[in-house]
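Discussion board: Methods & Data

I've been asked by a reviewer to show the raw model output for two of the constructs in my manuscript, not just the figures. I'm not sure how much to include, so I'm pasting the format here to get opinions. Each protein appears as its amino acid sequence followed by a line of discrete structure tokens. Is this the kind of thing reviewers expect to see in a supplement, or should I convert it first? Here is construct A:
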Amino acid sequence: MYDGDNEEHYIKQGDPSKPTYFIIRRLAPTTGLFVRYAAFSGQIRHALSNGWLPVIDMQNYPNLYLAPEKVGKENSWEYYFEQPLRIGLEQAYSGENIILSHGIHAKPRPNISMAFHENKNDVLTEWRMLVKLGLLKIKPALYEEIMETRQKLFSPTDRVLGVILRGTDYVSIRPKGHPIAPPLEFAASVVNAKLKEWKCNKIFLATEDINIVQKFKEVFGDICITLDREYIDYSGRVQIARLHIDRPNDHYLQGKEYLTQMVLLSTCNSFVSARCGGSVGVMMMTAGFEHTYFFDIGHYDVFK
């Protein structure tokens, strides 16, 4: 079913009285789960505003969370989330009217801007409605498992400061136009200050980088909690999307671990974060934080 055409277009058009299915796709295979979450949010909104039925296809387009031998056979979106309207690909591709989404762009969509993260003009509130309406619903059994993990990590009386920091390829490649990742020493000092100011007794750190984990464990000791997952000891300029861990079912587990971290962050009392795809997802999923702080120290290559 792979279609090389990147633009939105009909692949089947018949009886106009029949439903039109809008197949949401992302052609870039190395796109992370929460960049997809934001992009798909825009496509869901676009479909519904046109009276089309959105259906997400991470089955027929190679992606990080689908083992190569499962392409065309399993939908990796459905490993983690329900379909927006609980309509599967088989029904959608059997319809009389089928549109393929743009393979990259969806505008408007949630984004990594300060305005989005700080909810200027209620822009974030509008996107949170997709979550509240169940259009981005996490699989119930998986969500229950994540909540059980939370109970193991934190007591009911803990006041938890959630933290997202990016390292690895993001820092080495410096993607043009993206927010600059804060230097590690500076990030630790901000977290330390907010920990005291907001009267939190635990930190939950979400990152992919073992060096960040080690630094925070060194500075904060046992109050810094991390998910029991595989972290990357990174060197070089290779995209981490191209790196895989030698373990069974790694493609699925990488997505599960990523989602677990973001859901746990969304349940924290307060939040300090570098702006990235994960922070966009957290801000959409949370019921609300007491306090937030987002690093805003410029963008890569803006003066070049």
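Construct B, same format:
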Amino acid sequence: MKKYNVGVVGIGLVGSEMVKVIGKRNFPVDKLRIFATRERMEEIAGQKYSIEVAKNDSFKDIDIVFFAGTEGAKGASRQFGWKAVEQGAFVIDNGDDYRMDPRVPLVVPEVNSHHLSKDKRFIANPNCSTIQMVVALAPLHRAARMKRVVVSTYQSVSGTGRAAVTELERQTAALVSDPDATPEISVYPKRIAFNVFPHIGTGPDGEFPGYYREEVKMIKETRKIFDAPGMAVSATCVRVPVFFGHSESINVQFEKKISAEEARDILRKSPGVRVMDEPQNNVYPVPLEAAGRDDVYVGRIRQDPSCENALDIWVVADNILKGAALNAVQIGEKLLEMNLL
């Protein structure tokens, strides 16, 4: 098998996970180079790596570059992404700088790999919450065509990055020790330990008044992924005190009737999806059990009695894996499968 020179830009939560996923899935790497803002040695999954500082000409001999880009972070792909493309690399960007750029396909391999091509060498990874939702909805959309999607998310702190994980740890420890304590707040606008708040990203947004940036991402990205610019989509995104794993309550209306049992059968046969739907036996997805796993988990599939041709479903996935690092590497695998690289 041909091997490729691979680059990873960024070595935070997502970048480290990308390196792990590349190794775990035996991606055909000849040489792996990791870039960050300063030179150093890092240990990832028991192996030491020399970290380089990214420069304008760092990508001359690299075939594919993964930009880790913690959700909402700016800079690296804007600074180096198109330069890497000019130097001959395919770029897969986890950041949100170019997701809605018409030059850039926004790809989830199980959903819209047909958007990949040789002449589009800059590819965007969707938002973590969008990825898991469209993996669950795409098979149902193919069967019955979606008309309207309403989603409420319950998003873990790891989506914000390592500093947010540390903040939840410290706040929790302080409050367990002293319930009357006032823990330090630095990452989020409000205390996250033992709390939830409906505010993810900047906003409100001018195009969608009252919606925060994360919610707008879900609306726009879903439309782009499904090639459906007029699709009715609404989102409410909530931060919860969970370390890893996003959960979503989704109400979806279809053009024609699809029963809950039909939906279960379809999803059981769908790649990347695991159905856990026996609520009478306490079998349904939860983030604690989805963390560290590759699949998108679906449960609580039921008919919506208030709306014609509508279902309610519950979707959970590891936001750092399928919601970021894994999806990016799967895009790389799809490029190889389609003989595009």
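Answer (T.O., handling editor elsewhere):
This is acceptable in a supplement if you add a one-line summary per construct. For B, something like: The longest strand covers residues 146-155.
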